[in-house]
Amino acid sequence: MSDTAIVFDRVTKAFGTVRAVDAVSFSFPQGALVTLLGPSGCGKTTTLRLVAGLELPTEGTITIEGRDVTRLAAAERRIAMVFQSYALFPHMNVLENVAYGLVVNGARKAAAEADAQAMLKTLGLEGLGERLPSELSGGQQQRVAVARALVLRPKVLLFDEPLSNLDARLRRRVREDIRDLQKRLGLSVVYVTHDQQEALAVSDLVCVMRNGRIAQMGTPTELYEDPADAFIADFMGEANVVAGEVLGPGRIAIGGVALETRMRDHPAGRAELAVRPESITLLPGGEAGLPGRIQRAAFLGQTREYEVETAAGVLFVVTPAAATPFAEGEGVACRLERTIPLRS
Amino acid sequence: MGALSLARLALLCAALGLLLPWHGLEGGLSEATAWPGGAAAPLPALLLGGARWWLWPVLALLALAALPVLRGRAPGGTLTLAGAGILAWVFLMGEAIGLRGLEWPWLAPLLGAPPPQPALGWGALFVLVAAAGLFSAGIAARGAFRADAFIAFLVAGSALLLFLFVFAPLTTILTAAIYDGERFAPDVLAARLAAPEAWSLACLATHEGCGVVWNTLLLATLTATLSTAIGLFFALLAVRGGVRAAPVFRAMTILPLITPPFVVAMALIVLFGRTGIVTTFLWDWFDIPRSRWIYGLPGVLLAQVLAQAPIGFLLLDGALRAISPSLEEASATMGARRFTIFRTVTWPLLKPALAAAFLLGFVESLADFGNPLVLGGDFDVLSTRIFFAIAGARHDPGRAAALALLLLALTFGAFALQALWLGRRRYTTVTGKGDSGLPAPLPRGLKLGASLVVWPWMVFTALVYGIILVGGFVHDIGRGDMSFTWRHLVTAFEVEWQGGPALRGAAWDSLITTVEVAAIAAPITAGLGVLLAWLIARQDFRGRRLLEFMTMLSFAIPGTVVGVSYVMAFNVPPIELTGTALILILCFVFRNLPVGVRGGIAALAQIDKSLDEASATMGAGALDTLRRVVLPLMRPAIITALAFSFVHAMTAVSAVIFLVSARHNLATVYIVGRVEAGEMALAIAYSTVLIVIMLAVVLGIEKVVGRAQIGRRAGTSAARAAPATAPVRAGA
Amino acid sequence: MKAPRRLFGAMLAGALAALLPGAASAQGQLTVYCSVQEEWCRPMMAAFERATGIRVSMTRRSSGETMTQIRAEAQNPRGDVWWGGTGDPHMQAAQENLTVEYRSPMLSQLHDWAVRQAEQTGFRTVGIYAGALGYSYNVPELNRRRIAAPRCWADLIKPEFRGEVQMADPNTSGTAYTMLATLVQIMGEDPAFTYLRALHRNINQYTRSGAAPARAAATGETLVGITFLHDAVTQKVNGAPVELVAPCEGTGYEIGSMSIIRGARNMEQARRFYDWALTAEAQALAEQAKAYQLPSNRNAPIPPQAPRFENIRLIDYDFARWGNAETRTALLTRWEREVRAGAR
């Protein structure tokens, strides 16, 4: 038994001339929830399907729990997957759906149904066993899909955009449920989503993909606070990307103004700098900082948003509602609390 | 299923095959007593005796595959080679060395003068199945078909079957088009294809008949147009006209399906022939001169429209129902008048269904053989011309093959046009959501027009089927002798009681064979069809399009061509089937396969692919997924395919006329004989019995379908799949 | 896993059962291709089975279809004897080497025309019955039109028969070809074609089957139907109001024939059938079957209804010449070009 759950070694999947997954290598630790994040068409779903065995790689090897599964069909991989559409069998009732995996793997019907019954209870679905999937609400269907996957006691559980068919309020609850379950059962989970908030909220590790390659992998904090490039900086949340110069540790110059800021070490010289909207503090005009003028101001209840025209261009700034408000046209000074130098 | 498991199963199968008689047993089971010698000798005995020394490579290849497999390995390359090698070797040697010894003289230096080699038997069958298994295990081990050996086997197996029973016979007969007698002459093909008998336009300028291609096209276009129009009127009246007779309309759609060939044509003659009932009536009462208008284009057209209009109705009724009333209501809220709504909203949305109905009518008319044969008069179409080029006084297989090519081209042309049309536009108003709202009523003028077509047509249909119903029970309906009699039924279906029932009637043999053959063929057709549909729709592999094309190919081939090609291809070793019931079954299976495949594909389109995938990720192999998830969801489609293939097998004529034998005669062929002998009454009586049987089967199956609806979703998907599986039969 | 296998097993068993031929009888078996009407075929075979104990498998098809079948099966023949059907295809089969020579001891009992046909084909076929060509007319229809009863070929081209004559298409029917050849032999080729062109104007339909005009005349669909007279007799015996005409200029006839198929599997039984079918007793069965041809055995009783050859001016029909494939093609091509293509 190794301590890695899934290892990709230079895995490529080509559809015709298109390389949906292009020489990807990674290693996911056991017991962690790893999110595959990226815009549509980035290869994240294909990667998940490669793990599941629903696609076979064109090149490279895949190892799950120390076993080489590169040429194994989905049925032989001992993984479980929750589909975006849930893929509940419409001709079976909930209990039969949940017991299905056990039955096809050779369990006796009675034992399988007892197991399934227990799993339904775990997920708060008791009493729904006799219903058909079409008679359940969206959230219930989602939990049946999860129950159906978990009942197989998989080492690796895969989620393909599991929340996309739920409404906004339900989403939050369900994603927390999933995270709880994963922690309680010590599952290794791979989770595909295109929603960065969802990714940040549930993941141990986030793996951002772009054009069939891994753009960056790290903890949510690392990715948010220290994105490797402008794409990730932007994808992980709003960011102002400005041209500037690194003068030394914690010292930069933007728009000809020297500023103090927190930042990781970066060699001195010209650089692209990303600044999160919420890490800019606005001070009244004349104070130390990058001078600017409020172009547009909006009040959103919890926060205020501003567009500030500065020598480095227009900056997007978010401040807590409790901070001092500024009016449109007013002169301000911007203090950059944190700055992220980007690798070009 | 893994490659190794399949390879092991295949070896088991091969071992069994090596024990069974290698060659076919001409004399039946009595010859099997000679085992392991004589005609029943298994392959090892034949090899050791030196009688089939050229088959040693088969054993060698089997051993090559067995060595690693027995040690628990499944080396892809070796298995692929062994499987493909055995298949190729057995068939090549079977062709090379036939009943008269060496058939390919150029192999003489290699093979010398081998003894005659009869057809392959059960032993060979098992070994060949095993070889296909080894081959599939091999390619699966190399990663094809997502490493699923079961899928690989299904694909390889069905491709082999399609090649053997669709492609190979067809090529056998079509090559005749480039032979002039025994001489290879590609130049005659061009001459034959461009022959004036096919393309002459003389009818425009002179009294001569036009080319047979023009005749066929004219008839098909008229049939398609008229049946679509009549079907549309019926559908409009049923769905929007507020008519209470809609259930009657729907019941009527079953008629053409269960009508044996010739009966409608005969009924038309009885009604409208020069001495027909209607004609005589009109003459006696209104002095309308009697004529022979029924023989020729009008008669054939009438018979074909009678058969096609209900099917047009079936398609258009479904389409009209599917148009969401809210679209029309939306139009109405914008202030459109009834007729404007119809013209601008309803009509455009109907277009795809109209095109489908038209195509179906067109293709059916091309393939129709029975009606032009009986009613054609001087009016020749391709299907009859092909028949007489083969079976007429002037036997010319080359001409027949060229004409068959023309017919094939017409059919493919029609399909291509439809694909082009459908590829560009798809209207889906079926959302699965219950749509409320009231459909717009028909504009008054349109309703009146539709009624003027629909009611007379209903009366006409009732008249024709009334004649069929009565015809079997009167002395001689052809000459107007309408006194009641059981005579014809007794002649055909007499049962004598001599300590037990003895079937004395002349028709019993053919009836029993027909029902047996149809009952065996139908489940195989439905099963294979649905399986192929699943492979085509759900599995991604190279050659998928080709496989689909091959399944659809038998659609387009005229029945006569299929029949003769089967005789030519399966009368001599290596595969010898003529004179058996098996050849009839195979012919029906591969001829009706498209019905199952199309129905299956339509049904699968309604079933989300993630269901299959979910099943796979839960550890179910392809077989389990198929059995527990896909097949239950496709049950309505399967049952529909079952009903269609049964009924088609009962009513087929042109394809089997050359395949029946003394022991295995078929009802329709018997009826042809009756028609030839002028015994219309007996033919009609027999047809009535067939109609009753088919009606019972179809209604029984419909009852099962009614129960088979599972949940809301499956129910609607079945309903939507129904029009897509509407019966298309190529040549009764 | 099990259910579909069981189903498949059942299907296979069913297919197997259908495949197994029945037990062979001690006297052996025989496969006969029969090309006369079913009512005649069946009692013939039954009588032969009773007489010899040989089991007969019989398939009834028209002579054209049987010829096609024998051609297609030439490599591996299925049938043993081809009994009945007009002589032309039998002679063609002899010419194509599809049938074998057999000199039956019964030849001495046969009429001259039958022996002559056998000699012409090198004893590969033999006549079993003969029927004269002629026409029948519907009496009520004729009276209704007040037309004088026709007696000769020449009568049929009179204008009062315009659109009232039906004959078969010589391309598809042996009967019609016999008529073509007969007229050429009576009149000479060019006058015959002049006659046919004139007749063409009176033809309402060229049917595909040779017996169809007889039926059409019986029901009144046409006034006159050109056909073999025995076909018309059958209609008359069944009660149709028709009269038969053997044309005054003389007429041709067909010889219904019998051949043994080359490569017959049951040669001995085939010969026994051959000999038996030529006996007077066997040929007497025709009358019961409402077949009113002239039997070829001199001792066989002639059905009273049968049109007797003594009352008919028969021409000396040269079967060898007019049955020849090249002559046939030439005649048919000319007919197609000069007659069929003409205006009506």
What does this structure look like?
The complex is a heterotrimer of chains A (344), B (732) and C (344). In chain A, a hairpin with a 2-residue loop joins strand 17 and strand 18. Chain A is built from eight helices and 20 strands. The model of chain A has no long low-confidence stretch (mean pLDDT 89). Chain A is an alpha+beta fold. Chain A has two domains: 227 residues, P-loop containing nucleotide triphosphate hydrolases (Rossmann fold), CATH 3.40.50; 105 residues, Nucleic acid-binding proteins (OB fold (Dihydrolipoamide Acetyltransferase, E2P)), CATH 2.40.50.140. Chain B folds into three domains: 140 residues, no CATH class; 212 residues, MetI-like (MetI-like fold); 229 residues, Orthogonal Bundle (MetI-like fold), CATH 1.10.3720. Chain B has 34 helices and eight strands. In chain B, strand 5 and strand 6 form a beta hairpin. Chain B is globular. Chain B starts with a helix and ends in an 8-residue tail after the last helix. Chain C is built from 14 helices and eleven strands. Chain C is of the alpha/beta class. Chain C is globular, with a radius of gyration of 22 Å. Chains B and C meet through helix 21, helix 25, helix 27, helix 28 and helix 30 of B and helix 1, helix 2, strand 2, helix 3 and strand 7 of C.
Count up the domains of chain C.
Answer: 2
Count of domains of chain B: 3
Shape of chain C: globular
Q: Round the mean pLDDT of chain C to the nearest integer and report it.
A: 85
Low-confidence stretches of chain C: 1-24
Binned, the helix content of chain B reads 55-70%
Q: With helices defined by DSSP (H or I, 4 residues minimum), what is the helix count of chain B?
A: 34
* CATH class category label of the largest domain in chain B: Mainly Alpha
Topology:
The complex is a heterotrimer of chains A (344), B (732) and C (344).
Chain A: E1 4-15, E2 18-29, E3 33-37, H1 44-52, E4 59-64, E5 67-68, E6 79-82, H2 94-104, H3 109-122, H4 138-150, E7 156-160, H5 168-185, E8 188-193, H6 196-202, E9 205-210, E10 213-218, H7 220-225, H8 230-235, E11 240-248, E12 251-254, E13 257-260, E14 269-275, E15 280-284, E16 290-299, E17 303-310, E18 313-320, E19 331-336, E20 340-342
Parallel strand pairs in A: 3-8, 3-9, 6-7, 7-8
Antiparallel strand pairs in A: 1-2, 1-4, 4-5, 9-10, 11-12, 11-14, 12-13, 14-20, 15-19, 16-17, 16-19, 17-18
Helix pairs in contact in A: 2-3, 2-4, 3-4
Chain B: H1 3-19, H2 29-32, H3 43-48, H4 56-70, H5 76-96, E1 97-98, E2 101-102, H6 108-111, H7 122-141, H8 149-174, E3 179-180, E4 183-184, H9 186-193, H10 196-199, H11 202-205, H12 212-240, H13 246-252, H14 255-258, H15 263-272, H16 277-286, H17 297-322, H18 325-333, H19 338-367, H20 370-375, H21 382-391, H22 397-424, H23 444-471, E5 474-476, E6 481-484, H24 487-493, E7 495-497, E8 501-503, H25 508-538, H26 544-556, H27 559-570, H28 581-605, H29 609-617, H30 622-633, H31 635-651, H32 667-676, H33 680-708, H34 711-724
Chain C: H1 2-19, E1 29-34, H2 38-52, E2 55-60, H3 63-72, E3 81-83, H4 87-95, E4 99-100, H5 112-120, E5 125-138, H6 139-145, E6 165-168, H7 174-187, H8 189-202, E7 203-207, H9 212-219, E8 224-228, H10 229-237, E9 242-245, E10 253-261, H11 267-277, H12 280-288, E11 294-295, H13 319-323, H14 325-340
Parallel strand pairs in C: 1-2, 1-3, 6-7, 6-8
Antiparallel strand pairs in C: 3-10, 4-10, 5-8, 5-9, 5-10, 5-11
Helix pairs in contact in C: 2-12, 7-8, 8-14
